[in-house]
Amino acid sequence: MAAADANRIDRGDLEVIDTIDGLDEAIGRLAAGEGPVAIDTERASGYRYSDRAYLVQIFRRGSGTMLLDPIPFGTLAPIAEVIADEEWILHAATQDIPCMREIDLHPKRLFDTELASRLLGKSHVGLGAVVEELLGIELAKAHSADDWSQRPLPESWLAYAALDVEHLVDVRDLLAAELLEANKAEWAAEEFDDILGRSFEQDRSERWRRLSGLHALRSPRQLAVARELWRARDAYAQETDIAPGRLVPDRALTAAARMLPRTKAQLAASKEFTGRASRSELDRWWAAIELGRETTDLPPRSLNDPDRLPPPKAWAAKNPAADARLKVARPAVAEIAETISMPTENLLTPSFLRRAAWEPAGLTTDALARQLRDLGARQWQTSLTAPVIATAFVEADQAVQDSLPSDG
To answer: What region holds the HRDC domain (predicted)?
Structure first.
């Protein structure tokens, strides 16, 4: 099957809209269109510190395709206003909504074609796979990891970006019909509303713990140095808007923390301390190492989070009743997921089940449904899973009681 021809859909041209006149024309075209609006964004996360959108693609029947450069405008609120009451179609919306919010694109109604595909139990849910399955069109995925912050953008990139939205409306219609036929339309609506209600804000205070190779650091002092190096790199990356790993890779930071160099010259001589900014910003990294060597604020090897559960493999020793509950409930939930042709993680987030098994709010369906909803589960999920989980927990608790030695 041949890749889709970039000219298959009449898009007018592939010029990027980056002027007020062009934006006004796009607004008029959108207003003249009809039906839902397909939207996608292109970022440069592998090249830039920020996760901002460097291109916004929009398609609507009767409007055609529009490629907007949001950088000159700062906000696309006028675009949002003209389509405010329409359904917005995105594929994997959680990836795009954070950067869309930065430029004032706030959907009120959403249809996520990737999530819909998951709820329908499709084996492959990437955009290319879904388009090929439903429409018989093969999309060429050649530029997803490119640097979309560069200007001007090559015409081949623009053709690729346009195709990401030009089929979404057709895909949405077919998926919506499948959801109705499978009695999953209301479930999907709950999921879409849940995405719209999320904040997507991240706490960066402990992000340094995600450094590759951190597990090889044994002492609190090494961890302190790694933390300060990460903070120094993060600040410099934000200042220059360059992806941190392109300045100094993780493995170089952890190698320096493991080595604990005594002098700046020793750091400079290290073959493991690599990266484009490893020598040009040597004073910055050395200052971070000195701070880590001198601080009295030594980080623990792991976070002392009272809400953090131990790994399930340790439950048998730490909480045998919880271990029994999880071992009975997990396959019961998986069986429901198989029955409705859906990945288990989309039926119920695994961490919600673990939390309920560790310390259930009760052993009744109502009590467990409330607990799961408080954790973030949707109504449709608790309606399906809470009765089965309640039965599993009662069965597991009874088995634990039966295994205890009797007083007689």
So the answer is: 219-299
Task: Give the count of beta carbons closer than 10 Å to the beta carbon of residue 31.
Answer: 13
Please report whether residue 1 resides in a domain.
Answer: no
Q: What is the DSSP letter of 55?
A: E
Note if the bond before 331 is cis, omega within 30 degrees.
Answer: no
Q: Does residue 9 lie within any of the structural domains?
A: no
Output the domain CATH number for residue 393.
Answer: 1.10.150.80
How far is Cα 278 from Cα 304, in angstroms, rounded to an integer? 33
Instruction: Supply the pTM of this predicted model.
Output: 0.91
Query: What range does the domain containing 326 cover?
Result: 312-403
Phi, psi of 37 (to 5 degrees): -120, 125
One domain, residues 52 and 170: yes
Residue 22 lies in a domain: yes
CA distance 209 to 223: 9
Instruction: Please state the domain count of the chain.
Output: 3
Residues 185/187/190/195 CA torsion (nearest 10 deg) = -100
Using CB atoms within 10 A of its CB, is residue 71 exposed (0-12), middle (13-18) or buried (19+)? middle
Could you give the C-alpha distances from 368 to 88, 97, 329, in angstroms and in order? Answer: 34, 31, 12
